[in-house]
Design brief:
The complex is a heterodimer of chains A (about 450) and B (about 260). Chain A is an all-alpha fold and about 450 residues long. Chain A is about 60% helix and about 0% strand. Chain B is mostly helical and about 260 residues long. In chain B, about 80% of the residues lie in helices and about 0% in strands. Chain B contains nine helices and no strands. The N and C termini of chain B lie far apart (about 50 Å). Classes of the chains: A mainly alpha (about 450), B mainly alpha (about 260). Chain B: It comes from Sander lucioperca (Pike-perch).
Chain lengths: ~450, ~260
Amino acid sequence: MNASDSDEDSYNERTALVPAEAPALPSYTPAPDPDPPNQTTAKRPAASRQAGPVAGDSGSGGHGDSAGSSGRGSDQDADADEEELTLKYGAKHVIMLFIPVTLCMVVVVATIKSVSFYSEKTDQQLIYTPFTENTASVGRRLLNSVLNTIIMISVIVVMTVFLVVLYKYRCYKFIHGWLILSSLMLLFWFSFMYLGEVFKTYNVAVDYPTVAVVIWNFGGVGMICIHWKGPLALQQAYLILISALMALVFIKYLPEWSAWVILGAISVYDLVAVLSPKGPLRMLVETAQERNEPIFPALIYSSAMMWTVGMASPADAQRSGHETDEEAEQSGRGAEPESRQPRPFTDSELEEDRGVKLGLGDFIFYSVLVGKAAATGGDWNTTLACFVAILIGLCLTLLLLAIFKKALPALPISITFGLVFYFSTDFLVQPFMDNLAANQFYI
Amino acid sequence: MTAAVFFGCTFIAFGPAISLFLFTIARDPLRVIFLIAGAFFWLVSLLLASLVWFISVQISNKDSATQQKGLLIFGVVLSVLLQETFRFAYYKLLKKANEGLLTLSQEETMPISIRQLAYVSGLGFGFMSGAFSVVNILADSVGPGTVGIHGDSQHYFLSSAFMTLAIILLHMFWGIVFFDACEKQRWWAVAAVVISHLTVSCLTFQNPEYVGSLVPTYVILFLMGVWAFYSAGGSLRNLKLCITCKDRDFLLANHRPR
């Protein structure tokens, strides 16, 4: 019996970072540019892992600062302030992504280390990785893992192309139905399994009615928060939890060597799909930009905060407030303005911070890497090294995003660093540190 | 070996460092990023040192214990030298980045000063160094077992925790002194930092004679702390003003009434 497949389409997401359109920076304007702030690359269908766009908006910071001094209209001053604020806002966006990525990894590592179910060897495999790794020779095993990778990546490519086609022909209902189905499965079935394993580990006897009530509430609130409206913190928490659940499934069911090769291959695929002119993800981004609408906001982690700038009219406030609020657009009804309470207008200009977005696929693969590092061998040094490497990769990616200001894949740099550090720490650093610890030498 | 040992040793080893992080670094995203970058640089230096050690072990005689121990000592010395080299490299990188930002913004104010960077990068080095030294030991202390059952010292966990605490704080002080010395081109101070790091590491060769290794380490820690305090601009007068809450600049900067 293989695990269900419609969830496994999850990895078909794009992992991409897309900057927001930086609004024009005049010295004094009452309203910011209400362009669609979140250029999202295409979302992959099915389960929650979507690669999403990250809107790193640094330009709006300068607005608040330069607007105060109406006399200084010079570009230089605006640039100067913009640079300093760019650095500060850039740093804030990086931290706004560090925290959820760290949380997801912590959940995965904590589960792997305590619940042995997810690190047990199993003969069940996903249908996407049919070749077994229990072979006699090393060469055969390597061949099998490469074949598994090829199958997995082709499935991903097919799904992505299918999604692009669906999006191009405006089959929104189909896509939304697919997304809802996959998050249903994640929120109810996988979390039920997870809860069961946790109870088994700690030897807690719980009756079915209690579990039914708990899962029903958890899943119901999750569906509402993710696909409709809910407090931002709760939505973020649910997205982190479902990414962690998906990563745990991958860690359990992907065979050892296949997992590493798949991680490498999917970074390459991500790079190609987002940057090359005919890449499916790039086409999705461009289509979305042409139509001037955000794409499938349901499965993207968003840390958007919004404070309106002091505006002349409530209409502006509502319009701008609507644009930057993802939840408003998740009902699938396009750009339907929803009634928002008008914010208090003050004379002092407040900054509008659009926050950043990162696709859930990125969360999942980062967590798979760190979780695999934690699962194979009881070594914490490797886990720590991979963790730091991934964070630094994310930092560099966001730096590149600030420089190039276009859609960027979030996986390649982080996964490369992570893989390099995993293998080198496991083979080189670990024996060294073990010897040092045995003699209690300190470096 | 119980939860008490685990929690006790964890808090001994990481308590001061985590409180420093929470109170001074966690609020400012830029500092957090530079802390993690510092940790990354330390990691890379460790990687290189391990690579060299690994190669030397492969080509050596694996049966001879004295040779292995000699190689390990060589590895320790090499690792210390590489760490300090990477500290210098990080300093150069930060200076370049600072200069670039300064020319770009054409303003005098930088979002983060080189002294703050010294503190943060030193702490980053310290966190990573401490974590790599002690995390596996802490993980083992949760499980069942008897310490020193074969005649080794029974104070293994406790001494490891105290040593880790000293190392983390030392890295922070070394960072401050090192960057300050590089700023003022005082190469003797840089050499002193390197030598004190070597001294501390070589003192640990005496383990499990903990008196011989821990006590001098803490003495060096205290001295480096005083040196770092003075090189960061502190003085007895500042200290007095700060403690009696009369330091006007500090209060103004933090918007607190006197």
